[in-house]
Amino acid sequence: MNFSELFVLIIEPSRVQKTIIINQLKSFGIENIDDYSDGGTALNAIHLHIPDIVLSSMHLPDMTGTDVVNEMRQDPNLMDVTFFLVSSETHYRYLEPIRQAGAIAILPKPFSRQDLGIALQSTLHYLHDLDTPNENSAELFENVKILLVDDSQVSRKYLHQLLDNLGIHAVTEASDGAEAIEILKQESFDLIVSDYNMPNIDGREMLEYIRSHGEQPTIPFIMVTCEQNRTQLAAIKNAGVSALCCKPLSYDIFKNVITQLVLNHDVT
What we know:
The protein is of the alpha/beta class. The chain folds into two domains: about 5-130, Rossmann fold (3-Layer(aba) Sandwich); about 135-265, Rossmann fold. It is built from eleven helices and ten strands. Helix 3 packs parallel to helix 4 and helix 8 (about 175-185) runs parallel beside helix 9. This is Two-component system, chemotaxis family, response regulator CheY.
C-alpha cells in the first residue's frame, strides 16, 4: 500500500482549515478524501464507508473530537481505523482522553508537512501489517506472553489491537498495578506494557515493586504515558523501566521497541 491508496475522512468545521488539510494530503498523493463539518454526519458516513484515517478537529459544532474517537473505539468494525487529531488545543482535560483512546497523532494548527508525513507513514506500516502478516514477525512473537496494564478500557482495547496486529496474541489484561501484581504472583510473562497514571498502584509503583520484590525482577517493562513532568519521567527511568513510550503512540515506535526488547532479552 502507498499514500495514493489511502482513504481519509476529514471532520473540520472551518472551510479555510479544511482546504489547508486537503491540500496537504494531496501533496502526498492522497486523492480519496471525504470531508464533513460536524461529528454526527461524519460518524454516519464512517459506518457506511470505513476510511483508513479519520482526521478531526477537537471542537466541532455538535461534539468534540474526543466524542468521535470514543464512539469509533466502541465499534469493533472501526477498531482498525487510525485517528489523527488536528487542533491548537493544549488543555490536559481535552487531550488526555484522545491519547487514551489511541490517537496515532496529535497535530497542532498549523502542522508541518513533515509531521503529517511521519503520521501517514506510521499508518501505512500499521495497515500493511494488518493486511499482510509477516512470517518472520509471527515466528518472533509466536510464544511471547504480555501483561497489559491500563485503567482505561478504551486504551486497553487499542493497545491490545496493536499487539494483535504485531502477531502477539497471548495478552492478559489488568486494570491497575494492584491487579497486575496479583496476576504476576500466579503467572509468568515475557513483557509488561503499562500505563503510568492509574488508581490504587500506578505504573511507577508497580515497576518498583517488580524490580525489588517480584518473581521476575528483570522482566522487560514498557511504560506508555502522556506524562510530561520531567521529575516524574526521571523517577520512572530510575525505577528501571526498559522503554518509555509517549502518547499519542506511534505504531512504528511501539513496534520497534517491542521487537528490540524481544530480541535483546531472548524472551522467545
